[in-house]
């Protein structure tokens, strides 16, 4: 999960000063720790001159190469600090140059002369490249990671709306089933109420017709169908 922090883009001198001081002190602490390990392994004495005296940076002795390697390892180890403190790729170069500018001032102050050692200047350029390129790459890699947003409220709302829709669907289904039952019951009642009347009227008309036909055998054939009760059938049709 990528943890993202958003800062205000307005000018904040107190924040900038705090970042510069934190970066300067932490890099010196990392450099001191690595130098301590190197001096213990080589059996030499630890001194602040290894940090703030330009003549200690030399390439003609074995211990001089050890100090060079320690500085480059410290530059690599300071990349996470740049990502943590600066956090923006476009500001990495500014903070790296600021650190080396103050380091130049400290070296000038401690050694009491402007640094003129060629190896020292080459080392500073190499450190600037390592810290700038590594810090910018790390910051851009961090900024390109997706930001994970916890949407607990949205999930709760979706679950609530889903449960509400389920309840509404169940209620609608129950209402539809009740309506169907009511319609079936009403239709059955209508049929039950109509059919006996219809059947009773038809049976009455048919019985009268049978009686008329049976009584017509005894009379003439011309008046055989005159006594059929048609008014009952018409009354039944009107009903």
UniProtKB/TrEMBL annotation:
Residues 168-179, 223-239 have a biased composition (Basic and acidic residues). It holds the Pfam family SYS1. Residues 153-239 are annotated as: Disordered. GO terms for cellular component: cytosol; Golgi membrane; trans-Golgi network. It is found in: Golgi apparatus membrane. Residues 153-166 have a biased composition (Polar residues). It comes from the Eukaryota. The chain crosses the membrane at residues 21-43, 63-85, 92-111, 117-139. It is a multi-pass membrane protein. Keywords: Golgi apparatus, Membrane, Protein transport, Transmembrane, Transmembrane helix, Transport. One of its GO terms (biological process) is Golgi to endosome transport. Belongs to the SYS1 family. This is Integral membrane protein of the Golgi. It comes from Rhizopus azygosporus. The lineage of its organism: Eukaryota, Fungi, Fungi incertae sedis, Mucoromycota, Mucoromycotina.
């Amino acid at each position: 999960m990528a943890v993202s922090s958003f800062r205000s883009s307005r000018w904040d001198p107190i924040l900038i000063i705090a970042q510069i001081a934190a970066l300067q002190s932490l890099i010196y602490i990392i450099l001191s720790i690595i130098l301590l390990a190197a001096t213990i392994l080589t059996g030499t004495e630890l001194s602040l001159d290894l940090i703030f005296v330009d003549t200690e940076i030399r390439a003609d002795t074995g211990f001089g190469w050890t100090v060079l390697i320690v500085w480059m390892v410290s530059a690599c180890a300071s990349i996470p600090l740049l990502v943590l403190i600066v956090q923006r790729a476009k500001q990495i170069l500014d903070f790296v140059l600021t650190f080396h500018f103050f380091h130049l001032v400290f070296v000038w102050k401690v050694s009491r002369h402007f640094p003129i050692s060629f190896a020292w200047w080459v080392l500073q350029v190499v450190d600037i490249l390592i810290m700038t390129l590594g810090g910018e790459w790390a910051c851009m890699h961090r900024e390109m990671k997706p930001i994970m947003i916890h949407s607990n409220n949205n999930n709760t709302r979706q679950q609530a709306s889903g449960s509400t829709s389920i309840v509404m669907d169940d209620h609608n289904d129950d209402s539809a089933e009740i309506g169907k039952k009511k319609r079936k019951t009403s239709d059955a009642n209508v049929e039950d109420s109509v059919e006996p009347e219809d059947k009773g009227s038809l049976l009455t008309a048919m019985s009268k017709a049978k009686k008329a036909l049976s009584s017509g055998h005894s009379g003439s054939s011309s008046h055989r169908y005159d006594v059929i009760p048609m008014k009952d059938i018409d009354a039944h049709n009107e009903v």
